[in-house]
Specification:
- The chain has about 150 residues and is of the alpha+beta class.
- The chain is about 45% helix and about 15% strand.
- It has one domain.
- It has seven helices and seven strands.
- Helix 4 packs across helix 5 and helix 5 crosses helix 6.
- The longest helix is centred in the middle third of the chain and has 16 residues.
């Protein structure tokens, strides 16, 4: 991690510890999101357009206020449904709500050759229908270095 990335997460460049006065809240960095260049099921880059631009999604990270709000909302719903039996389907729907809510933008999504509008419902359709995309977005949400600029993978 370079000095600017260390400063962004509150570690002084030349000493250890965590300085509350100089730390930028990581949640603010993760709230802005980071782009994820998506790959196909076999790991090949997904590209679109005549310029072969990468198909990508921008997501907030798990340290963001948005992520915390979404996970708290799902927990509150579960508590209110105390009589509801916990099932794999219920847990999957909750996971999908949180991950889809963290997607802030996308590029390169089409249906029948027509650009697919960026809506929460369309995000859920893509993530629920294509598990390999869901897994990439979920992993990116936890890739905290991508939000500080300390990683060049996204």
């Amino acid at each position: 991690m370079d000095d600017s990335a260390k400063a962004a997460v509150g570690t002084p460049p030349d000493q250890g510890g965590f300085d509350l006065d100089t730390a930028s809240p990581v949640s603010e960095l993760e709230e802005m999101g980071a782009w994820i260049e998506l790959t196909g099921i076999e790991g090949e880059p997904m590209l679109f357009g005549s310029e072969n631009k990468p198909v990508r999604m921008k997501s907030a990270g798990s340290y963001s206020k948005l992520y915390r709000r979404l996970t708290h909302a799902q927990t509150t719903k579960a508590v209110k449904r105390r009589t509801t039996k916990i099932t794999g389907e219920l847990l999957h729907r909750q996971r999908l709500e949180v991950i889809s809510g963290c997607v802030l933008a996308w590029e390169g999504f089409y249906k029948g050759g027509v650009e697919l509008p960026f809506t929460r419902d369309n995000i859920k359709i893509v993530l629920d229908g294509f598990g390999y995309i869901l897994e990439q977005v979920e992993a990116a949400i936890e890739d905290h270095e991508a939000f500080t600029g300390a990683s060049s993978s996204t």
